[in-house]
């Protein structure tokens, strides 16, 4: 199913969950929304709006309330909680799972998972995981690097030297996230996260050499699974008549999903060390985010010099 996560994936990819019952149904049940439901009103019998497609999370409050109900009422409520689209039940704090829940879940082929974590932490971890897995994804052509802790997406036409530049950056101690294809999803209103497709993870293609395994050649410290995208650096072939920003005051942005990402265009020319230039661009961008803008400092110094010269002429 497109844009869905199986309960098996949920268990395997989140370390805080274990299967209590329904192991045979893990592939059958799918999670399609990042929203988590704590069925409080439902335990009182109110089912006019029951989001059955959500993971149903039981904490101390829900289990304690259920334990005060009669066995017959508890059985009826658990039966109604088992919707045809309910992916699973999750019980926090290793609380005792009510027998009626297990009976109803087994009958309707719904897994029950448990966690030792408090309910709020379980909810936060599940939401964080599902928001990443279920978010719309876009595949971009480029190379994604971690440079001094910044996610730098290097773009440009095919053959401009993106992968070769990435290799130089790796040798200088920076980390590769993805080469050629970058899978991007929007984590929130201000954050884009990029990672490599599984088939390309840790791999880098160098023309004339072929495909190399960066992790195998340079070690685990040379790769990273994913990173937030902070800035785009676009490589363009140098043209004599084309104007490029020389002072750094021509700010560009690129819209990906609903997020605007700063963009820096750098001309590629024989003899230019692109790895060092990109490294410097990343450091300069970081300095700007920390409040220091070299371009503005230059403009202030220039204006001060003009004022000083004007006074001397008078």
TrEMBL record:
Annotated region described as Important for the catalytic mechanism of both phosphorylation and dephosphorylation, given as residue ranges: 204-213
Binding site for ATP: 156-163
Keyword vocabulary terms for this entry: ATP-binding, Carbohydrate metabolism, Kinase, Magnesium, Metal-binding, Multifunctional enzyme, Nucleotide-binding, Serine/threonine-protein kinase, Transferase
Domain HPr kinase/phosphorylase C-terminal: from-to ranges: 133-301
Stretch list, region Important for the catalytic mechanism of dephosphorylation: 267-272
Cofactor annotation: Mg(2+)
Positions of Mg(2+) binding: 163, 205
SUPFAM superfamilies: HprK N-terminal domain-like (SSF75138), PEP carboxykinase-like (SSF53795)
Domain HPr(Ser) kinase/phosphorylase N-terminal, chain residue ranges per copy: 5-130
InterPro entries listed in its UniProt record: HPr(Ser)_kin/Pase, Hpr_kin/Pase_C, Hpr_kin/Pase_Hpr_N, P-loop_NTPase, Ser_kin/Pase_Hpr-like_N_sf
EC number(s) recorded for this UniProt protein: 2.7.11.-, 2.7.4.-
Catalysed reactions, as listed in the record: [HPr protein]-O-phospho-L-serine + phosphate + H(+) = [HPr protein]-L-serine + diphosphate; [HPr protein]-L-serine + ATP = [HPr protein]-O-phospho-L-serine + ADP + H(+)
Domain observations: The Walker A ATP-binding motif also binds Pi and PPi.
Role according to the record: Catalyzes the ATP- as well as the pyrophosphate-dependent phosphorylation of a specific serine residue in HPr, a phosphocarrier protein of the phosphoenolpyruvate-dependent sugar phosphotransferase system (PTS). HprK/P also catalyzes the pyrophosphate-producing, inorganic phosphate-dependent dephosphorylation (phosphorolysis) of seryl-phosphorylated HPr (P-Ser-HPr).
Stated family: Belongs to the HPrK/P family.
Additional note from the record: Both phosphorylation and phosphorolysis are carried out by the same active site and suggest a common mechanism for both reactions.
Complex formation: Homohexamer.
Protein name: HPr kinase/phosphorylase
Organism annotation: Ligilactobacillus faecis
Annotated gene: hprK
């Amino acid at each position: 199913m497109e844009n869905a996560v199986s309960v098996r994936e949920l268990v395997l990819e989140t370390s805080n969950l274990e299967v209590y019952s329904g192991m045979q149904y893990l592939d059958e049940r799918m999670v399609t929304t990042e929203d988590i439901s704590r069925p409080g009103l439902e335990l009182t019998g109110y089912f006019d709006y029951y989001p059955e497609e959500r993971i149903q999370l039981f904490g101390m409050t829900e289990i304690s309330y259920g334990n005060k109900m009669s066995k017959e009422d508890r059985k009826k409520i658990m039966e109604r909680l088992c919707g045809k689209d309910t992916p699973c039940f999750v019980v926090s704090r290793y609380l005792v799972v009510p027998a009626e829940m297990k009976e109803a879940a087994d009958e309707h082929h719904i897994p029950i998972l448990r966690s030792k974590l408090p309910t709020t932490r379980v909810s936060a971890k599940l939401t964080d995981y599902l928001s990443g897995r279920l978010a719309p994804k876009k595949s971009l052509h480029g190379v994604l690097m971690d440079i001094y802790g910044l996610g730098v997406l290097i773009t440009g036409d095919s053959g401009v030297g993106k992968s070769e530049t990435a290799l130089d950056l790796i040798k200088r101690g920076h980390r590769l996230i993805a080469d050629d294809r970058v899978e991007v999803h929007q984590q929130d209103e201000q954050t884009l996260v990029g990672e490599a497709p599984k088939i390309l993870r840790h791999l880098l293609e160098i023309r004339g050499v072929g495909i190399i395994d960066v992790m195998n050649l340079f070690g685990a410290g040379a790769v990273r699974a994913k990173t937030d995208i902070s800035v785009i650096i676009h490589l363009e072939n140098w043209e004599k008549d084309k104007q490029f920003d020389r002072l750094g005051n021509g700010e560009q942005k690129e819209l990906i999903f609903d997020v605007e990402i700063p963009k820096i265009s750098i001309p590629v020319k024989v003899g230019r060390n692109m790895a060092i230039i990109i490294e410097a661009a990343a450091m300069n961008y970081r300095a700007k985010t920390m409040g220091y803008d070299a371009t503005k400092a230059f403009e202030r110094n220039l204006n001060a010099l003009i004022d000083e010269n004007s006074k001397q002429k008078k």
